[in-house]
Amino acid sequence: MKAISTVPGSQVLNIVEREEPQITAPDHVKIKITQIGICGTDREIAHGGRAQAEDGLTDLVLGHEMLGLVTEVGSAVTAVKPGDHAVFIVRRDCGLGYPCCENRSDMCASGHYKERGIHKLDGYMAEYVVDNERYCLRVPESILDIAVLTEPMSVSVKAVDEAVKIQAARIPGANYETYLQGKKALVVGLGPIGLLGAFALRLRGAEIIGMDIVDAFSPRPMLLKEIGGSYINGKEIATNMIDDIYGHIDMIFEASGVAKLGFDLIDALGVNGVYVLTGIPGVGRPVDISGGELMQQMVLMNQVMVGSVNASKKHNEMAIQALVDSRTKWGNAIDKIITEIMPFTDINAAIANTSSDEIKTVITF
Ligand SMILES: [Zn+2]
Question: How close is the Cα of 350 to the center of ligand 1, in Å?
């Protein structure tokens, strides 16, 4: 079968032949891949960034955001059947105990987890994949055309979930389910994770202010407006003016990965505010911050800063539900996250496709 691989550290992608995987255990599910989303991590790997091939292999099949058709299942599988559409999650347990054994490899404590298409396991840019049922989720037919967004949505949903859980647990009388209703959330960086975060936050009843540095009438801010959000162009409004204009912010969802901006924005966070970080900045560039002021503010205002990466199977389930709910609430607004669909033979063009109007490029197999 055809697959797209790279030798980690190189800057070359190849269409290669891989042996078609087969069902060899009762809990195996075989999926014919239909769509793969491309994200910043794929682009980073394609440009020689962090990735590791499987033990014994020199190249790594890329791709971790997938959707496909179940073609065959092992005798013990009950979650999906041939003909269903389904997704596999990204991470695989380290096998060394908690939290991985509780299906929370996203919080793996040993660091020995693997990630398909990123770290020590081939990814999903291939015609077929086989994996265990416990990593597989069925997708409703009603969202087939957006279900490739499940993985990035799961990352956004987890970040919001963790942030809300933490603050709802700290504040007497606060309810996890209703915590964000009427609260103000600032979403920083309107790429796929930021925009999907905005959908997730709106579904929980938060008011959204999005921030980026693109023109207010370009596709990403316009999509934000379509779901009732307002937009700040970071080139036009200073970070220390945000709370003067919008009032104190209850939650900041950081998805820009720009360290200086990330720290400057703490100024806007209000009493009992929670700041969740999902962007990963490049290292090595020091940032000047007013450390004293920052610590004073965080202590006196009971603020929390939390980092969030990857997502559990539970968050992938929540992501599928969020995609369904987004469709119900805002029609095909969520569809606009997918800006290009290309055949897998155009992988180099798909990786290079980073115009300011691009949100999510998807390749098809
Ligand atoms: Zn682990």
Answer: 33
CB atoms within 10 A of CB 169: 11
Predicted model pTM: 0.96
Q: How far is the CA of 60 from the centre of ligand 1 (A)?
A: 22
Q: How far is the CA of 92 from the centre of ligand 1 (A)?
A: 8
CA of 116 to the centre of ligand 1 (A): 15
CATH class for the domain made up of 153-307? alpha beta
Residue 343 CA to ligand 1 center (angstroms) comes to 35
Q: Which fold has domain 2-139?
A: Quinone Oxidoreductase; Chain A, domain 1 (3.90.180)
Per-position pLDDT tens, the chain of length 365: 999 999 999 999 999 999 999 999 999 999 999 999 999 999 999 999 989 999 999 999 999 999 999 999 999 999 999 999 999 999 999 999 999 999 999 999 999 999 999 999 999 999 999 999 999 999 999 999 999 999 999 999 999 999 999 999 999 999 999 999 999 999 999 999 999 999 999 999 999 999 999 999 999 999 999 999 999 999 999 999 999 999 999 999 999 999 989 999 999 999 999 999 999 887 777 888 889 999 999 999 999 999 999 999 999 999 999 999 999 999 999 999 999 999 999 999 999 998 888 999 999 99
Where do the structural domains in the chain lie, given as residue ranges?
2-139, 153-307
Rounded to the nearest whole angstrom, what is the distance from the C-alpha of residue 146 to the centroid of ligand 1?
Answer: 30
